[in-house]
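Quick one, T. Sequence first:
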Amino acid sequence: MLARTVVITGASSGFGRGVALRLSQLGYNLVLAARRGHLLDSLAAECGNAIAVTADVGDPNAVEKIARAAIAKFNRFDVWINNAGVAALGPFDAIPLEDHMRVVQTNLGGAVAGSHVALRHFRERGSGTLVNIASMLGRTPAPYYASYCATKYGVIGLCDALRQELAAQDQPEIRVCAVLPMAADTPFFDHAANYTGHTLQPFPITDAEEVVEAIVGVVEAPQDEVTVGMSATAAVIAERLSQTVTHGMTGALTQLLQMEEAPDAPIEAGNLHRPVMIGAGVHGSILQRLDMERQAPRGH
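Structure tokens:
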């Protein structure tokens, strides 16, 4: 049987790296895309039958380049995973507008561009699976994550609309999947632009490996939408029972943990406009840092 080919954006660390390593064990061909080409080269070598494509998904031309590279090497691709993402966290009007726009360009623009390229190819072939990595913050928002939430709401809406189109056009062999994790212990929070004035305090935190397995799961057996972990399931139920209460509690708790109790920290530009060297693994430093902060004396 011919090995299936999977395109993964944001493959240099976090979920993308974890999914690449897992799929390589399952015998897939891989097309690995991200801005940090040096990390992709070593990952491609580790995975085996894989190629690396240095690309910024915020540029639609770069997304087209990824597709061309996949077809040139493997003649096709069967699965496209839009995983690349960035964030600028803090009070909405304290974050430079160009940073908000960069979040939109990467997270939502990259998903739109990747979905456009993937669906064109899948229509030509008559089948394929598009996987968009959304977030529970696309269902249950949080303060100080405004532009990030906006992009993830957009990704979920994009998936819903595309499924409607495919159903109306009677193309059941093309699947559109959304994966909705909670905050996870990846380098995401090492990379995020931080305008809060405090160390970042995400909650609750999901094991990155659990999210990786969920993404691999929809590659192998597509589902329309997958929430990852008990916390995500509880959040969905709470949202359905009482949106007002859920949003109020989430907002109050985020305000307390992030803006009132968290230790002070300098403003950090993160990886919004250029890649950073830190954070090259599947897991990040968030759990270790939070544990150290909990053991430190109270106060800033």
